[in-house]
């Protein structure tokens, strides 16, 4: 019995091992790229909205000077399908500009618009806003801002065509206030497409930004003390 066990153990020791499969790194990368290309979904192209019906208006409202690149996008589909490398070839520099455009493209796909993105009735880039009053009780009257077709009153529009507008509100009795909202002579207000109205404002660096702020301020204090001593005649 012991001899059989010994023979089995010797057989395992002297059995030839199979050589491990070796795959070149380049082939592995090509395989991963081929798999990714086969499974990648085409980019989603969202439909334009009434306030942003074309490429130029989209680049205008997101700001940061992107309006000057409108001629580089022949169609709405091109705006939402070009890759970052293709945008660089078109001359969108610096890289933060491309990243900003890509970020806003994704937000637009997800329906996360800026002010006026929910309006329905727009004419020549302008949406008219009116105050809708709802009598809840003899003592309670609710007022809200709605978008109506140009030249129409709230009473002349069916409830299904009235669109409540986010980001604006009623102030006092008859005033509509909000970003990029201007009053009209005949009552109500208008919201007009304006360059940078959806722009994400960049922070303003003070004294060189966070990483260099202490160094810049220290050198400034040294220079001020030196100037003061020179003025007092110590140098």
UniProtKB/TrEMBL annotation:
Residues 55-111 form the Small ribosomal subunit protein mS41 SAM domain. One of its GO terms (cellular component) is mitochondrion. Residues 1-19 form the signal peptide. Its main location: mitochondrion. Keywords: Mitochondrion, Signal. It is found in: Mitochondrion. It comes from the Eukaryota. It holds the Pfam family SAM_Ribosomal_mS41. Belongs to the mitochondrion-specific ribosomal protein mS41 family. This is Small ribosomal subunit protein mS41.
């Amino acid at each position: 019995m012991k001899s059989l066990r010994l023979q089995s153990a010797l057989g395992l020791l002297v059995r030839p091992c199979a050589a491990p499969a070796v795959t070149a790194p380049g082939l592995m990368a090509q395989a991963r790229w081929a798999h990714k290309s086969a499974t990648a979904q085409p980019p989603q192209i969202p439909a334009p909205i009434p306030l942003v019906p074309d490429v130029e208006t989209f680049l205008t409202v997101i700001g940061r000077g992107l309006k000057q690149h409108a001629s580089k996008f022949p169609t709405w589909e091109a705006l939402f399908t070009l890759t970052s490398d293709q945008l660089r070839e078109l001359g969108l520099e610096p890289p933060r500009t491309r990243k900003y455009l890509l970020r806003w493209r994704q937000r637009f796909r997800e329906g996360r618009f800026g002010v006026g993105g929910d309006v329905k009735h727009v004419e020549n880039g302008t949406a008219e806003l009116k105050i809708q009053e709802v009598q809840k009780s003899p003592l309670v009257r609710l007022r809200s801002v709605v978008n109506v077709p140009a030249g129409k009153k709230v009473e002349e529009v069916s409830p299904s065509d009235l669109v409540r507008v986010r980001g604006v509100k009623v102030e006092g009795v008859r005033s509509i206030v909000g970003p990029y909202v201007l009053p009209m002579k005949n009552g109500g207000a208008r919201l007009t497409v304006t360059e940078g109205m959806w722009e994400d404002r960049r922070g303003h660096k003070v004294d060189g930004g966070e990483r260099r702020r202490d160094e810049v301020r220290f050198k400034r204090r040294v220079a001020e003390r030196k100037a003061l001593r020179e003025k007092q005649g110590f140098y």
